Amino acid sequence: MYVAVKGGEIAIDNAHRLMAEERRGDITIPELTVEQILQQMRLAVDRVMSEGSLYDPGLAALAIKQSRGDLVEAIFLLRAYRTTLPRLYTTQPIDTTSMQVRRRISATFKDIPGGQLLGPTFDYTHRLLDFSLAAESRLPEVPTAPIDDTPLSRVMDILGTEGLVDAPAPDAPEQVGDITQDPVTFPVERDIRLQNLARGDEGFLLALGYSSQRGFGDNHPFAGEIRMGEVAISIVPDELGFEVEIGDITVSECEMVTSFVGSKTALPKFTRGYGLSFGYNERKAMAMSLVDRSLQARELGEDLVAPSQDEEFVLSHSDNVEAQGFVQHLKLPHYVDFQADLVMVRSMREAILKKERHTATPESEEAA
């Protein structure tokens, strides 16, 4: 007979103390500071900001420290804090064409206006452990070039001028939904899908994008353009009535050139997938653009045959905070539920065994 365990505040408080001790580690080693995380683990910080839906590098670094490096827990912390903040203004849509670009590559055209800018990247590196980092690393000399503020045109515009790719949807900010204020109901429009994907779990989107590349869905992509850099954020205060810049944020953007469409009456043209993420989060932006294109299957009249094309499946399972909450709630007491199942299973087993004994042959009974 299972009975409910009676827990107490002292046990819970001690568990929290133990967690704090584990988080601190060996006290003879200097404590990890938030500034160190912010400066030296920036990719983790950027992911937490993106999936936490809050652009604040300092708070994201604090969340990583508090969570002992568990990024999903850090995302949960940041998103919980976000709910306590007042919403003062809604910013204007960012203009990534005017981005102060730090990285910009295209896999569709070699010679693009403004050139390819490799920027900071793991690409072209040998995936070999650098044991010199086990000691203090030395700051390498990095060549610098004069800053060019000239906006870089979009690579996709090269195709757009010839009508070879579908045009982006017109801006209509007054009609954009908000998944942080309203529940998602299906079917959904693309603005809701993009919001959901923007803070969706990177690993989940990466797997879905990978599946679409492997044939689960009709998606044959080319990386039209991937860019990362700083963009200005603006608001229009009611009392002023004109646009005011309030700061810059770092974003990663990806546009994929994907399968072409056409008909007897419409000229064939490529379609596009779009991804945008806070910070330097290139892999997430690429995966997001692949899934965005897959989720356009309904509008493009394509057969829905793959998980990445099913918007309800994708959007309902992409949120790692919700997913981990539902999975980890299994750790909470389920004594009564399990007791009910246990009684039912015992009853079923007894009924089957009773039936077997009743139908036993006389020979077997005599032999017994």
Order of helices and strands: HHHHHEHHHEEEHHHHH
The number of helical runs is 13
Q: What level of helicity do the residues show?
A: 25-40%
Strand tally = 4
Strand proportion: 5-15%
Largest sheet at a glance? 4 strands, antiparallel
* Distance, first to last CA: 33 Å
Low-confidence stretches: none
Radius of gyration: 27 Å
Task: State the strand order across the main sheet.
Answer: 1-2-3-4
* Alpha-beta classification: alpha+beta
Q: Overall 3D geometry?
A: globular
What is the overall pLDDT average?
90
Pfam families: PhnI
Keywords: Lyase
GO molecular function: lyase activity
Protein name: Carbon-phosphorus lyase complex subunit PhnI
Secondary-structure blueprint:
Layout: H1 9-24, H2 34-40, H3 42-52, H4 57-66, H5 71-82, E1 100-105, H6 156-160, H7 190-198, H8 202-213, E2 222-235, E3 244-261, E4 269-278, H9 282-294, H10 311-317, H11 320-328, H12 335-358, H13 362-367
Antiparallel strand pairs: 1-2, 2-3, 3-4
Helix pairs in contact: 2-4, 3-4, 3-5, 4-5, 7-9, 8-9
Keywords: Lyase
Pfam family, one: PhnI
Protein name: Carbon-phosphorus lyase complex subunit PhnI
